[in-house]
Amino acid sequence: MGLLIRNIHGFYWKPKLLTLSITILLVLFMSTFEIKSSYAVETYSFLTKWGSFGSVEGKFKNPSGIAVDSSGNVYVADTSNSRIQKFDSSGEFLGKRGSFGSTNGKFNNPSGIAVDSSGNVYVSDSDNNRIQKFDSSGTFLTKWGSLGFAKGKFNNPSGIAVDSSGNVYVADTFNNRIQVFGIPVGGTEIPIDTTALLLYGIQNSIVWWTPVIVIVGAGIGLLKLKKRN
Fold first, then answer.
1. Whole-angstrom distance, CA of residue 52 vs CA of residue 74
2. CA distance linking residue 2 with residue 98, whole number of Å
3. Cβ(136)–Cβ(148) below 8 Å
4. pTM for the predicted model, two decimal places
5. Dihedral over alpha carbons 31, 36, 39, 43 (to 10 degrees)
6. pLDDT tens string 9-18
7. Nearest residue to 171 via CA among 220, 208, 215
8. Which tens digits make up the pLDDT trace of 208-222?
């Protein structure tokens, strides 16, 4: 039986991946999706789709993270191709960045992506256990993190989000916590808070869960959780 996630409004979700912005709801379906609620559920009209399996421009292998900038451009973490692809709102290919590796600007299974109000792009470079930051043109700006449990270190980071103040939230998946990073003037992002998440288990047992998605904005917070094996 699949895991159902409940938010504070009583909605139950069963997505493989879900990204929510203040005004736009984009759902990348990779498994069944259902809502169970006593509340009225809004319906959405299908607009468009793009992509298929492959490694050429506009094709994907296991896409996971997705984000939209203020101009409506769409960024996709093309995970198993170890790259980020950029499209306009109609799905027209605009550009790509990255390839497999561990040097600046390269990725190893990137899984989360976020865009701040200035158009800077943040990528959870999951299997490199780090966050990379780029400007809107794709130029590498900075990175932080490595494998570990101390503040500022990660174990397979996945979901990532940026709030209106520029703070960066990272789902530090296998460390079972969310880390929050602030940006000092003229400096590199540093952790301003870190909280280990221990959620109550089911069937009267204590279970650790691993957060894989974090979303901020408009008073909404949602984590997609996966049971740790």
1. 16
2. 33
3. no
4. 0.72
5. 30
6. 444 343 334 3
7. 215
8. 456 665 666 544 344
- Mean of per-residue pLDDT scores for the chain: 75
Please, what sign has the CA dihedral across residues 145, 114, 64, 17?
positive
Distances (CA, A) of 163 to 13, 21, 143, 214: 23, 11, 18, 11
What pLDDT digit, counting tens, does each position of 12-66 carry?
343 334 333 322 333 333 333 344 445 567 788 998 999 999 999 999 999 999 9
Output the DSSP codes for 67-115: EE-TT--EEEEEGGGTEEEEE-TT--EEEEE--BSSSTT-BSSEEEEEE
Both tokens of 136, joined, read 């809107």
CB atoms within 10 A of CB 101: 12
∠ at Cα 173 (188, 136), nearest 5°? 40
